[in-house]
């Protein structure tokens, strides 16, 4: 598969899952020949979706496929299939995260610590110097 343009919607409701600028930089470094567009909001993503050929997302609803006539493949780092629905028509290939198996223990422990220790709030407090 030759990817020429990639639309990335890096946002997730859980901040720990949101792609950070360092992740995007790593993607750009790994795919130097690909034109990468980063969306800034859900509405920005939906506005750009009709022109997208490939997309990297956390969430994709079945009804959105109808608004993406050029979409060839959809990529998600999600391990499960509950956030990204497969294309009902079968036109768009969907690629789910496959790297989680080896690191599932660490991921689970990290998320438990993140929520139980309220690390998101701690980082926000640290950023505000409070």
List keywords for this structure.
about 130 residues, alpha/beta, Rossmann fold, 2 domains, five-stranded parallel beta sheet, about 35% helix, globular
Task: Name the overall outline.
Answer: globular
CATH top level class name of the largest domain: Alpha Beta
Task: Specify the CATH homologous superfamily of the largest domain.
Answer: NAD(P)-binding Rossmann-like Domain
N- and C-termini, Cα separation: 48 Å
Unreliably modeled segments: none
Helix/strand class: alpha/beta
Count of helical regions: 4
CATH level-two architecture of the largest domain: 3-Layer(aba) Sandwich
Main β-sheet description: 5 strands, parallel
Please estimate the helix content: 25-40%
Mean pLDDT: 86
Structure, described:
There is one protein chain. Helices cover 33% and strands 15% of the residues. The protein is an alpha/beta fold and 130 residues long. It folds into 2 domains: 5-98, Rossmann fold (3-Layer(aba) Sandwich), CATH 3.40.50.720; 99-130, no CATH class. The chain has a 5-stranded parallel beta sheet, covered by helices on one side. It is globular and about 45 Å long.
